[in-house]
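Notebook entry, structure prediction.
Reason for the run: the old model in the group folder had no record of what sequence produced it. Starting over properly, with the input documented here first.
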Amino acid sequence: MSDEDHCTITGTAKPAKADGPPYAECVLCREPTEYPESYKGITLCPVCEWQEAQRTACSG
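New structure, fully documented this time:
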């Protein structure tokens, strides 16, 4: 098993990117996301998405 095998989160689907406004709000900072407003579920803006990935990344 490689290092990437245990670090990869499986079974998580990202919502499709929106073609244009209106955009859903980020659940953390309320900024517009890249996802359509009609998407039901947790949406994060690019900044919060990146920060969350850093927090949950494997440390080795």
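Summary: Helices lie at 3-7, 46-56.
The old model has been moved to the deprecated folder.
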